[in-house]
Amino acid sequence: MTAPDPAVAEAMALLDGIGPEEVLLWSGAGISVEGPTSLPSGPELTSRVFDTFFEPGALARVLTYHQVVGLTTTPLCERDTGLPAARLPRLETALDAAARARPDAFPDTFDILDDVRVAVPNRLHAFAADHIARGGRHVTANFDTCVERAHEARHGRPVPPDAVHHFHLSFADSPDGKELGATLSAIRTGFPAAEATRMRALLRSPRAVIVLGYSGSDYFDVDRLVAALPADDLRGLRVLWALHSAHPPHLPDVPAESAIPLQSLLRTAGADVRVVCGPTDLLLAELARRWGLPPPDAPRPRTPAAPRLTVTDAERHRATFLLYRSLGLHREVRRLLEEGGTGADDPVELRSVRSQLLWEAGAWSSLRRMWRRAPADAPDRSVRAERIGACLWAQGRLLAAWLWLRRQRSGVAEGSDEAYALEETLNRVVEHMHRTPDLRPLARRLLARMPAAPEPAGTPPAQETGEMQETPDTRAAEAARDDNRLRRVAAFRALQDVRDSLDALRRGGPRDDHTHADRSTTWFRESGDLQGMLSYRHRALRDGYRADDAAVTDEALRERYEQLLTANLFLGSRAGAWRVALLPGAHRVFAVREYLFALATLQYGWWHRFRLLAWYLPRRLRHRAAGAGRRTLLGRSTR
């Protein structure tokens, strides 16, 4: 008998003394790629969705934006060479836009997964079936039922109850695909309560977990569920994570902050995680030998057969427009709006689009006039009230903003979405008053009388843990509330953010805990919202600035601010770009003419421009007198 590869043997030592009945296999799309199953890998399926539902070139455009804003892949192993590549857009985000673009053919959208419905098992499914026959259990992110089919074919009976669990459901659970965890709307609110309970039990019950063919990219539910586990909750659990590659087998050096965050989260929860990189065959052969299972067959060639759907040009235009909006690609949204390729004929939707574009252009006076002229009894009247106040706030007309929002808030029912939107913007106005010397005394008085910002109704703190505390346990019942739940998630993030900041101001200092801004940056990054990601990156830079931090040189600060400015400009957000000039330490990196340009470019109020200039100029002059700051943000000499 051939001795196992030394690296495989070292990895397998983690499982010494553990039998198959004490092991949970955790699988992803990677186990269904081999023939005869021949299902697409994650990148292949993303390309398929873009080729089918979106305008030609849409994927390449999105990847270009990802590269510029720094949304790139991280090598999983030190032997992976080459520069970081642009990260693919999230499949669920793309499918979400495709489904929303075809409301009359919503179920047909999931025909793009027809090959998943009818997939036949391969040797990896057979191995998983044999493991189940020996008392093991299986949890998977896959929609196919190949493990169940393999078990019935090899052992002549269905899998035992609860032996296989699909945490995003399968086509056996949802034949038309509507309830699958395949769209962003379905997953980004986290696991329902019953599903979260079941997943925690699955993680706590075995002695070991073996991960096969799984990317670990389920941030919204799996990651958040594991992140919420108490420290040492998984103490004693051993996790062997197999990374399939053509490299000779080895145990990669996995840093504390792994490229796959779930690995780090499992460690934090107390699990002993070991990663082995190399051909999966060698690992399976050794597992089969240890457990007395039939050795895996030789791999069979792939015979992929992508389903073909009929999608009209109008549906492609509409899906592309919705996708670009969800990703925060304002330059592309503006282009499609000018070309008439939005597929939107609802005046409320068009007003919302124009509102967002004017906001990101920093045209706040123009935007306020637009909302003033909007019908006061229109369906978006609640947005109208909040946006007018937000424009006054962005312009630095803080007292006018506070008076307007307070008056609008007084006539709104407690607990409504409108109330929370107005409350959040009102609190941000007070926060900025406190940062403004001439209004700080008033802000302190207001803060003393203000209660802590409330949490949105129906969105408990569990929202941050990946668990939705809904009473119905079926996703069909929850689907009807998806839009409302997604609004609640956004409201929760915004209110938590401003509440943290106001609480810090009450204590008399800056916010020391930056985890909320970092967590929000991750949340928007994972959903694909590039503008949301950059907005919270701005927030993190603001809250994290310390003037006495000698480790942050002018050059390092300049690089951070320039990256943020450039990324915003590329997205088409002039406001996001030149608001960088308002960050603390701007006097260290912006020359006078650049600062004046930033103030003139955006539609600030005149008093606010004077206020900002009065803050900046003395600091800039002192900095120059000290012999620093001779190079500007954009690399030009200040001489």
UniProtKB/TrEMBL annotation:
This is SIR2-like domain-containing protein. Residues 472-482 have a biased composition (Basic and acidic residues). It comes from the Bacteria. The lineage of its organism: Bacteria, Bacillati, Actinomycetota, Actinomycetes, Kitasatosporales. Residues 452-482 are annotated as: Disordered.
